[in-house]
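Working notes for the structural subgroup meeting. M.R. asked for a predicted model of this chain before we commit to crystallization trials. I am recording the input and output together here so anyone reviewing the notebook later can reproduce the run.

Input as submitted:
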Amino acid sequence: MWRCVRLAVAAFLCVPSSCTESKDGAAPAGRTAVRVQLNWVPEPEFGGIFAAQQDGLYSLAGLDVDIRKGGSQVPVAQLVASGQADFGVMTAEDVLTLRDRGGELVAVFAIFQENPTGFLLHESNPITTLEQLWTSSSTVAVDANPPFVRLLNLQFGGKDLKLVPYTGALAGFLASKDAVQQCFITAEPVECRLRGVPTRVLSIAPVFNPYAAVLATRASTASANPAMVESFVRATSEGWRRYFADPAKYNPAIAALNPSMSIEAMNMAAELERPLIVPADGSAIGSMRPARWQQLERELVQVGTIAAGRTPSAGALWTPPSGSNSGATSTKP
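Returned structure, recorded in token form:
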């Protein structure tokens, strides 16, 4: 039950096999020290980052990368905005929300092209669509007032639903065939499959589909060190290409850093996440389009998360230096 540790993790730690800084914090000669803060514990959702580290891609790019574990209580966006981390994995909503509050974050890489959040139901549940769920009288465990809940309420009403706090644990779900809870598509469903519990997942992407697991940095960092940012993006994109070419090569090292998740579960998760991460249009892994950010901005304004006109989404998207061929951040509409 690897997602259950979400409630217990309250600090960020350095991933032992990824820490390459010397005792005084300096990078090895000729390499730039880079701190990457994850928003969760090591899992396949970060597979390309760990693959790039394992294969020495960051070192070849002149970077000495320190990957730090995350958890539910780790304020990734704030750590990046304050300069305590150079890059951080966060939601696209985090980027725009912090910018709305005066921060200067810019997104440089989007791991998930399709939103990996969904609702987990037992296979025997007759509900098969988001509309059916949101117009039912089901009890649904969900995070406190996320944007997608407000969008679902606007679209379908939800007056008969009973929303209860999402804990990250599966005990309540397993105890009742009528239970419904929020899930990460490559996490809780995998655990249920390993337990022999048939389930169905309703993706929220049809209603709310921002980029997910976005790598962001400070605008000032990107402006002062564009070559460093580009090198990091290129190495990370190649890391993801290699990860999906052979997840079994990299998952044992990830599992060693997260013994609560088995290698079998990691291999299953890697296959589930592949279509959500690899762009269907053939563009580079990590690519982003301004139109998707503009859509997210409109949605966050609509539900009152950010103020209209104060956080232009175009400024949240890093543009590679002129003449760059990194390919991971697109400026196409």
